[in-house]
Amino acid sequence: MAKWSSSKWSKYRVLKRSSEVKPHLPATYRMNSSALWRMLDRYGEAIVKPSGSYGGQGVLLISHAGDGRYVVHDGPSKKKVEGREKLESLVRRKASRGYIVQRRISLASIHGRPFDLRVMVQRRKGGSWNVTGKLAKVAGKGYIVTNVRRSRGKVVPVKTAIRQSDMKGSSAEESLRSIDKVSLATAHQMRKYYPGNRTLGIDMGLDKNGKVWIIEVNFMPMLGLFRMLKDKSMYRKITSYANPAAAAKRK
Fold first, then answer.
1. 3-class secondary structure for the chain?
2. Where are the domains of the chain?
3. Which InterPro entries match (predicted)?
């Protein structure tokens, strides 16, 4: 079996091979001019981000503003650009080698601030996959990324986020079941190509109609996000999988 890297691009290609997971993947291409224009012409927006970094660093949102004008959203700032050549030049400066371009999903939001989900899926050695925790990351004001540290956002329980959001079409209970189903299917697919991994942190999104989308899969997710929730039971469960010896000493 071929060796697959841990880049976002490689993991996307792995997940796309699953007929169960594929419908939950936003269209994604390796970054080049052709891919960028294909995405903008089809969807009017595109996310450009590095394939090998995490934490929301280097993520750009590019939007078609009509009449040959574009808006580039970088962190909390926005820059207006006129013409394809100027846009390509700006993107080349900011997004060099190793970037991908991805369809921008219109995420459900709370008071105008988009949120996505971190879902932990884990297994013990020789055991089956389990969803051990999930939370919602709400972007800070003016940001497109939900990374809590970078955007000064916050974390809240998933059910709370759904109930406070502008999402339509699904109840909180239906959404939670869908999230678990897609998360487990993702883990089973990843295990075929990365058999040594027993902890996955899956970043997922819910669009305004309640559909579940897989944004990316992390092999070394930050567990500290779960300590920020008032209820620490999820954090204790997650760490019992990640470090069972230490968890046993706490009992």
1. CCCCCCCHHHHHHHHHCCCCCHHHCCCEEECCHHHHHHHHHHHCEEEEEECCCCCCCCCEEEEEEECCEEEEEECCEEEEEECHHHHHHHHHHHCCCCEEEECCCCECEECCEEEEEEEEEECCCCCCCEEEEEEEEECCCCCCCCCHHHHCCEEECHHHHHHHCCCCCCCHHHHHHHHHHHHHHHHHHHHHHCCCCCEEEEEEEEECCCCEEEEEEECCCCHHHHHHCCCCHHHHHHHHHHCHHHHHHHC
2. 26-102, 107-250
3. YheC/D
